[in-house]
């Protein structure tokens, strides 16, 4: 499946060598990233107009990371070349209209002289670090080296690295003080910020979840099993890797470069039913898939599995996804197994059921089709159904391909949501601490507060003017609270709250401003 997101392999080796030399020249600090200031100086040598350069940056930095890596730099250079030749720039032109290998490097006025001058300087007198930078540092090394020196926030070279710094310095101290990691979500690690976006497939058995992944990849992944019976009996993360192999759950849960350390809280019984399947694939370079066991209803699931998959009921599984409605896509698969009239009835029943389960007035987006390697059953689908399935499949694939482009925006959104949740959690914990007596009757007071937790939430909401919809589930909070002594909690620390408010109100907007399109 063509993603159209990576350009390194889309030009000749001779051109790659030229682009690498230009990239190294432009990357002034040698971190493998070209940010706005470096870019504006370099791209000005193309003699293109500011609107054209703005469009080129927007297309090249499609993920809105605020910088260009080497692959994005090649895309930008090819777009510059096309613009100089008089082509009208569009986001799809490199995927559909142009033979990439025929795009020659653009004309950059005065660049050869500057590159030659820098080369002479480096050969005549070594740089301060003893060598010219030729290989970009891995993202984790980049961030660790900068954070260890405690550079100011304006020294970071991407939005994601900026969020890491803000988390470590502003948000994590608040989470740690009020035990947010025990009540709501584990602490974030660098790998949580750096991980590719994930697509988890959830549904009843034999609805085609594993086949759907196989259809997108165009091949089986290691450990895939397909059959009419419940064949996938574990959670399988399908991600990019140098070769085809399967890694056990306990191993990947302690792997520093993978975002699965938080799963250790579910224990060994779950991790024994969790594994990672790695393989080289262009789509997996952009997205990670999570295949899941089939969700059935009834007592059978609770007795046969050694972990709780939300009591293994599809309705309850969907309920657990509340708050993430914007991320949910519904696929009505194997739709070619019924005729058009039956499909209309199934679709209507599905929409009615989803409305009850999701409990929202908005209509969930439902894609209709048959996502497998088998040809459509045209006899059942008919000409109308066949045309509909093709259009629906195109829409769904376009939605999937769009995920990496929105990954940075989603991380910002999730980070802000987490910060607000951590603030509310701090208010709740400190309020419960304040309600405890100084000396006598602490056990009775804790029981009273636990029993009347919903009322205490209401007091916190009114005192600090907080939206009711942002408060956690009362039952889940009560369940975790029963394992703690409220008297040991911390009192409210206004300076910590203010630090998070400043982060939300000033530092994050400044970070986004720093890494916006440099031609805005």
Automatic annotation (TrEMBL):
Q: Which residues form the EH domain?
A: 15-109
Checking InterPro entries in the record gives: DUF5600 (IPR040990), Dynamin_N (IPR045063), EF-hand-dom_pair (IPR011992), EF_hand_dom (IPR002048), EH_dom (IPR000261), EHD_N (IPR031692), P-loop_NTPase (IPR027417)
Gene Ontology BP terms: endocytosis; endosomal transport
Question: What are the protein's GO molecular function terms?
Answer: calcium ion binding; nucleotide binding
Tell me where in this chain the EF-hand domain is found: 48-83
Taking the record's annotation, the residue ranges forming a coiled coil are none
Task: Name one matching Pfam family.
Answer: EHD_N
GO cellular component entries: cytoplasm; plasma membrane
- For whether the record's keyword set contains Kinase, the answer is no
Q: Which UniProt keywords apply?
A: Nucleotide-binding
State the name under which the record lists this protein.
EH domain-containing protein 1-like
């Amino acid at each position: 499946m063509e993603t159209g997101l990576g350009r390194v392999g889309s030009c000749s080796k001779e051109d790659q060598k030229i682009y690498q030399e230009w990239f190294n020249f432009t990357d002034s600090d040698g971190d493998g990233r070209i940010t706005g200031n470096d870019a504006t100086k370099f791209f000005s040598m193309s003699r293109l107009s500011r609107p054209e350069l703005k469009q080129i940056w927007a297309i090249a930095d499609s993920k809105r990371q605020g910088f260009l890596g080497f692959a994005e730099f090649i895309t930008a250079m090819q777009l510059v070349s096309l613009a100089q030749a008089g082509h009208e720039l569009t986001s799809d032109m490199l995927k559909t209209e142009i033979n990439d290998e025929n795009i020659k490097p653009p004309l950059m006025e005065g660049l050869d002289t500057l590159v030659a001058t820098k080369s002479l300087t480096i050969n005549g007198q070594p740089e301060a670090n003893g060598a010219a930078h030729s290989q970009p540092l891995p993202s984790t090394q980049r961030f660790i080296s900068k954070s260890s020196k405690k550079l100011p926030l304006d020294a970071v070279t991407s939005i994601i690295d900026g969020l890491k710094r803000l988390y470590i310095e502003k948000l994590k101290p608040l989470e740690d003080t009020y035990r947010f990691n025990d009540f709501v979500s584990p602490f974030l690690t660098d790998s949580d910020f750096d991980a590719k976006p994930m697509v988890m497939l959830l549904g009843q058995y034999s609805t085609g979840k594993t086949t759907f992944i196989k259809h997108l990849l165009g091949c089986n992944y290691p450990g895939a099993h397909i059959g009419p019976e419940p064949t996938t009996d574990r959670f399988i993360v399908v991600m990019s890797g140098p070769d085809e192999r399967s890694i056990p759950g306990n191993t990947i849960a302690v792997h520093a470069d993978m975002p699965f350390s938080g799963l250790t809280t579910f224990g060994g019984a779950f991790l024994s039913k969790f594994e990672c399947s790695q393989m080289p694939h262009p789509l997996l370079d952009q997205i990670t898939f999570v295949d899941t066991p089939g969700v059935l209803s009834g007592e059978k699931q609770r007795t046969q599995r050694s972990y709780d998959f939300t009591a293994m009921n599809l309705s309850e599984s969907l309920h657990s996804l509340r708050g993430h409605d914007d991320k949910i896509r519904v696929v009505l698969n194997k739709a070619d197994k019924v005729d058009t009239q039956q499909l209309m009835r199934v679709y209507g029943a599905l929409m009615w059921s989803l409305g009850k389960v999701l409990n929202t007035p908005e209509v969930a987006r439902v894609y209709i089709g048959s996502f497998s390697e088998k040809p459509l059953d045209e006899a059942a689908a008919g000409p109308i159904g066949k045309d509909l399935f093709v259009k629906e499949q195109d829409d769904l694939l376009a939605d999937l391909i769009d995920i990496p482009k929105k990954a940075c925006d989603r991380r910002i959104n999730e980070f802000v949501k987490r910060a607000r949740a951590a603030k509310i959690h701090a208010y709740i914990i400190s309020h419960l601490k304040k309600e405890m007596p100084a000396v006598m009757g602490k056990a009775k007071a804790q029981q009273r507060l636990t029993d009347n937790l919903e009322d205490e939430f209401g007091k916190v909401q009114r005192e600090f003017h907080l939206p009711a919809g942002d408060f956690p589930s009362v039952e889940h909070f009560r369940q975790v609270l029963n394992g703690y002594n409220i008297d040991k909690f911390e009192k409210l620390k206004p300076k910590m709250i203010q630090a998070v408010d400043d982060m939300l109100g000033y530092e994050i907007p400044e970070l986004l401003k720093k890494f916006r399109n440099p031609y805005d």
